[in-house]
TrEMBL record, chain A:
Origin organism lineage: Bacteria, Pseudomonadati, Pseudomonadota, Alphaproteobacteria, Geminicoccales
Any GO MF annotation of the entry: dipeptide transmembrane transporter activity
Protein name: Peptide/nickel transport system permease protein
Localization in the cell: Cell membrane
Keyword list, A-Z: Cell membrane, Membrane, Transmembrane, Transmembrane helix, Transport
Organism field: Arboricoccus pini
GO cellular component, one term: plasma membrane
Keyword presence, Transmembrane helix: yes
Transmembrane segments: 7-28, 99-120, 132-154, 198-218, 255-278, 290-317
Pfam families referenced in this protein's UniProt entry, alphabetically: BPD_transp_1 (PF00528), BPD_transp_1_N (PF19300)
Domain ABC transmembrane type-1: 93-325
Automatic annotation (TrEMBL), chain B:
Protein name per the record: Peptide/nickel transport system ATP-binding protein
Any single Pfam family the record assigns to this protein: ABC_tran
Keyword set, alphabetical order: ATP-binding, Cell membrane, Membrane, Nucleotide-binding, Transport
Lipid bilayer topology: Peripheral membrane protein
CDD domains, A to Z: ABC_NikE_OppD_transporters (cd03257)
UniProt-annotated location(s): Cell inner membrane
GO biological process, one term: peptide transport
Domain ABC transporter: 23-273
Domain of life: Bacteria
GO molecular function, one term: ATP binding
Biological source species: Arboricoccus pini
Stored InterPro entries: AAA+_ATPase, ABC_Ni/Peptide_Import, ABC_transporter-like_ATP-bd, ABC_transporter-like_CS, Oligopep_ABC_C, P-loop_NTPase
GO CC, alphabetical: plasma membrane
């Protein structure tokens, strides 16, 4: 029931996203008709191209055509790859998602325990370490951390393979696509060596991204845990002699999770944005790198498709955060 | 010192049978470290509580009532440091025991309920589950029976339709209901001492009476003792057997409730009574107590009430000031009692 209602509430956002991306493509500088007609074209042939592209029609009519194309899943063709934008994006999305999710998992696995321990023992060594991580993660741009890690771990120490792409395709063959995530597909294929190779390629970009995501997560975990641990109901739990583990996890952490999940959603969307840079640094064949080359080549259809896809991802992400909050907090369910 | 404590630790239960009070707080002195200096929050606080009795700890906000309770429960803030004194429960000094041993007592033998019951319960956990958490920690109730036990606990505090309320979240219940739930949690392990820290604060007046009647009934049913912390002297007079009046970290007077209300010996007790609304009295008849609690970061005179006291005389500032015994069960910390 709630899921359906939240889904319905997401529809207006999606409509807005579609309208904005459409208008955006018209606000971008440059005349697509002149671009398609080529450098040798005269005014007449540009007008001809404009007619074939439908660009001479009124804006609402063009929007109608745009919607019809969208309904068919047609985002137009990319100039640089010559492929439909939809298939380009769908083919690259798993690489980006695998990277982002890996970064998020690493960030959560480090930041949550760190924040919890820091809150349990304020001003202890763990607390200072937490503060240091937060400062470093917030202060250094991801691409800088990425380059630094490449310099140290690949160039100086040689601990990781060349940071180019998802898999060293000279020695390993990519697994048949099931989920599109190499870490999962290699295992499904029973190819442990390829799994290791894919993992060693993934580690550096994922850690670079994770370091950036850790800062807000650890800070929020610490703050939310401090609030929860100082709350009246935790005092009641302690007075009732509940075991420490119960007090910390069932009582304090569960109520702190509300704010932590919200930050997780925010961090996830940051990560999707940071991908654009990190994929460039690590030669990662994801949608971020695709978008960068599309912008450089003035490949409007591809840029538009990328923006639309990111926007849809954001909307879905917010939906997921809302649903998680609803699952955690019964009060949300009763509010409406 | 150590040998004495060891001796007290072992024959505790036997000692209890020989008229040892259930709870004795003995010369408890406690400081808080703050940026502005050390706050001498409790100074030589002492009282006793017998089995089956309700003792009221009365005083204005900041007088040290809750700090005393938190010291008993080991819920003190990290900034607090106990300088001297003992807290003996059935003759066992709680401060001398290892924390682990104290954990066993907390929640099982000594339970506590708090003010503002709606925030004192986990906001996003079903109240039935919260009661089960306590059962799991302290009793050998098999998992399959816990739900039943939790519902019985709700029934015991007179919550109508307990099976349905088991599924409720605190925000779905009234403040009075939440306080009943907290009482049910506290009593689920059958403690022999219940500390009630302003249990009716934040409840409307009719609910206050209902909750206090419930606590008194439960005391009669189970024979447990209650340490009732309140700033409401009239309520303490109605429900308590004995009353200890606190002011600025001192216990200034201890007496049976009816005696204290009728013949207060300490000027502060008398002022408190004069400041308590009585039936058929007008607002104008209420007398406010002049001045504020002294700043406990500064060195204090032997009597911490002296700056607010109309009866103050030069010899009041002569240390030491010891409690004077006026009757068999009537102690007062004053050189010139009323």
């Amino acid at each position: 029931m709630i899921v359906l209602r939240r889904l319905a509430e997401a529809v207006p956002s999606l409509v807005g996203v579609v309208i904005v991306t459409f208008l955006l493509s018209h606000a971008l500088p440059g005349d697509p008709a002149a671009y398609f007609a080529g450098p040798a074209a005269n005014a007449e042939s540009v007008a001809e191209v404009r007619r074939t592209l439908g660009l001479d029609r009124s804006l609402p009519v063009q929007f109608g055509y745009y919607l019809l194309d969208l309904a068919k899943g047609d985002l137009g063709h990319s100039l640089t790859t010559g492929q439909p934008v939809t298939s380009d994006l769908l083919q690259r999305l798993p690489a980006s998602m695998e990277l982002t999710l890996a970064a998020l998992i690493v960030a959560i696995a480090v930041a949550l325990p760190l924040g919890i321990v820091a809150a349990l023992r304020p001003n202890s060594l763990a607390d200072h370490f937490c503060r240091l991580t937060v400062t470093i993660g917030a202060a250094f741009p991801t691409f800088f951390v990425g380059l630094l890690l490449v310099y140290l771990l690949y160039f100086k120490l040689g601990l990781v393979p060349q940071p180019l792409g998802r898999l060293d395709e000279i020695y390993f063959t990519p697994p048949p696509t099931v989920t599109g995530f190499y870490l999962i597909d290699t295992l499904l294929n029973g190819d442990v060596d390829a799994f290791r190779a894919a993992l060693s390629q993934l580690i550096l970009p994922a850690v670079s991204l994770a370091l950036f995501a850790m800062a807000p997560l650890a800070r929020m975990t610490r703050a939310a845990m401090l609030t929860a641990l100082g709350s009246d109901f935790v005092r009641t739990a302690r007075a009732n002699g509940l075991p420490a583990r119960k007090v910390i996890f069932t009582y304090a952490l569960r109520s702190a999770m509300l704010s932590i999940v919200n930050v997780m959603g925010m961090v996830f969307s940051f990560l999707l944005g940071s991908n654009v840079l990190i994929e460039q640094v690590f030669g990662w064949p994801g949608i971020g790198a695709y978008a960068v080359s599309a912008v450089i080549a003035s490949d409007y259809a591809a840029v538009q498709g990328f923006v639309l896809m990111m926007a849809i991802l954001y909307v879905l992400l917010n939906l997921a955060v809302d649903l998680a909050a609803t699952a955690i907090d019964p009060r949300v369910r009763f509010e409406s | 010192m150590k040998a004495g404590l060891m001796r007290a630790t072992h024959p505790a239960e036997a000692a209890a049978a020989h008229g040892v009070p259930l709870l004795e707080v003995d010369r408890l002195t406690l400081d808080f470290a703050t940026r502005g200096g050390r706050v001498k929050a409790l100074d030589q606080v002492g009282f006793t509580l017998d089995r089956g009795q309700i003792l009221g700890l009365v005083g204005e906000s900041g007088s040290g009532k809750s700090v005393t309770a938190f010291a008993i429960m080991d819920l003190l803030d990290q900034a607090a440091r106990i300088e001297t004194g003992q807290i003996r429960f059935t003759g066992i000094d709680l401060l001398a025991r290892k924390r682990r041993a104290l954990k066993e007592l907390r929640g099982r033998e000594i339970a506590m309920i708090f003010q503002s019951p709606r925030t004192a319960l986990h906001p996003i956990r079903k109240v039935g589950h919260q009661i089960e958490d306590v059962l799991r920690a302290h009793s050998s109730v098999p998992p399959g029976l816990r739900r039943q036990k939790a519902i019985e606990a709700l029934e015991r505090v007179r919550i109508p339709d307990p099976a349905r309320r088991y599924e409720a979240y605190p925000f779905e219940l009234s403040g009075g209901m939440c306080q009943r739930v907290m009482i049910a949690m506290a009593l689920s392990a059958d403690p022999s001492l219940l500390i009630a820290d302003e249990p009716t604060t934040g409840l409307d007046v009719t609910t206050q009476a209902v909750i206090m009647d419930l606590i008194r009934d439960l005391v009669r049913e189970s024979g447990m003792s209650v340490l009732l912390i309140t700033h409401d002297l009239a309520m303490a007079g109605e429900y308590c057997d004995r009353i200890a009046v606190m002011h600025a970290g001192h216990i200034v007077e201890t007496a049976p409730a009816h005696l204290l209300l009728r013949e207060p010996a300490h000027p502060y007790s008398a002022k408190l009574i004069a400041a308590t609304p009585a039936k058929a009295a007008s607002i104008e008849a209420l007398a406010a107590i002049p001045g504020n609690l002294p700043d406990l970061r500064q060195p204090q005179p032997p009597c911490r009430f002296s700056t607010r006291c109309e009866r103050h005389r030069p010899d009041c500032d002569q240390p030491p000031l010891d409690a004077a015994r006026l009757g068999q069960d009537h102690l007062v910390l004053c050189r010139h009692p009323l």
